[in-house]
Amino acid sequence: MTIELDQKEAEAFAKYLESRKVLIADPSTSSRSGLFAVFRDLGARSNLTLLVNTFSQAQATIVSDKPHIVVAEYDLGKRCGLELLQSQREQRPEETKECLFVVVTSNTSQTAVARSAEEDIDAYIIKPFTPEVVRRTLMRAALEKIKPRDYVLAIDAGKAAMGEAKLDEAEGHFNRAMPLDPSPSLACYYLGQVKALRDIINEAQGSYQKGLSYNRIHYKCMVGLYDLLMKQQEHTQAYEIVRRLSQYFPANPKRLAEVLRLAIVTGKFEDIERYYTIFTNIDDRDETLIRYVCAALVVCGKYYLSTKVGNNRAIELFRKASVTAQGRTKVLKEIVLALLDYHLIKEADSFLSKFPPESFNSDEFLLLRFLVYNHAGKASIIIDQGRALLSRGVVDDRLYAVMIQRSAEADLVVAAEELVYEGSEKFPEKRGIFEEVLNKARKG
Amino acid sequence: MGAPNDDLVNPRDFISIKLAIEFQNLTANSHPLHDDVVSLSEIRDRVLVFELPETSCKLDHNVMIKLGRRDSNANAQTPVLFQSTGKIARVKELKDAKIRVVVTLIQFDDVSWVSFMQLFARRQEEITEFLRQVKP
Predict the structure, then answer these.
(1) Which candidate among A79, A163, A288, A385 keeps its CA 20 to 30 Å from the CA of A442?
(2) A425 interfaces chain B, CB cutoff of 8 Å
């Protein structure tokens, strides 16, 4: 901590705290107690300091008591304490400049820190904490809001003007902010926003890049530049930016999905395989990360199937996805369907066998088994199985297509026509396909 | 801070500092308690604050504390970073059959105390600096 806090600032902070409601949300009673003591020593009033130990209690308290300061553990039961930030902002939309959101947590990982930074929290304090660190961090965060610098004031004025669509005025404020900070990346970001609103794309891009030249990890400038490049469909450049973003702000589910999608769009399939290798070395795998890595492997595998890069390579990726998925049936379903699309029946059957036993009676599994057996089993058995699925209430266009084809081939013309009618009612956009299947089967 | 290397997913970004704790009541001569039931919530000047099961200790009991950093590899030996004898200076009853105890440290190595404090202080500084850089 570099800021020396003089007595005057401490008094200003105590005055700020005096009338503020504080909510401390932490499952650890000891931590709550310790934080309560620090806040009391700093000047918070005991009767305005609320202590809760669960996410739901915290959320309810934010709605009922509208605390100005929320101190939350990152890992709040099964929920993330960060999710409370939005609730706090909703309850005090006009007073965000007077409110504080502080994470106090045992989670010291960069993924948690970066996710918190993206949400624009005011401070992040790790446990076990020292009362002095809590004191100094809180005071610094609060003073930035109570006594904003001229730079911040100029940007706030520009943002307000931008909100009222007064772009000239906004630009003036942002330009005025530029010399007020040695690293005015935020001013550059907002200048970029003004240019983008005026549709001067090159200048907007230049502003974001200038912001990044002051601070290469400036989150808003990177996001601004990325959005702009995506809008222009500059996928290769966008991919590079989003990769950089992901290095500093890892494990943002939405962004990971974007990175993996862009890796596919830009044909960087080797990157996906490389990400997978790194992913396998992560001990603490986040559920969302698993989902996206699996999805990327499946999409990449599908691409390999479509381009005939080699079925073996695709199947190897599917194998990795199924191992990573650890029985997640959605991933296995995608793999089986992709293999069926390319008539790799034996391989589809092999992935079908990876479904967990508890899913064997599910509609999803029975439908997939039906679709696989359709390529190998006897027509009469297929029809029986299909009827069983329909009577179970399974609604799927592929099921109708197979049943129409099989019924027509078995000269069950009326049944086939009824299936076309029924299927078309449920999937009107597939009517043409169903009729084509019927006609082909009749001719065959 | 996440290392600015060329990899999208950096395994180190997912690692959180996890403490291995051994807390033994020397007065009661009881078996040591570990971090599955003990947590360290505060560090002060020559003082540690723990959350413990309520029957673990009483005021003025003497204790032995050993702290280490748990490796992500569960089978790996956890080297002791800091150890100290201490006296229970304060006990506060909490909910759920737990107590909050303030332990005054008595006999320990100053160098290892500083290095233990720095384990968290350094990470706190990194985090504060990261937030400062990404926000302005």
Answers:
(1) A385
(2) no
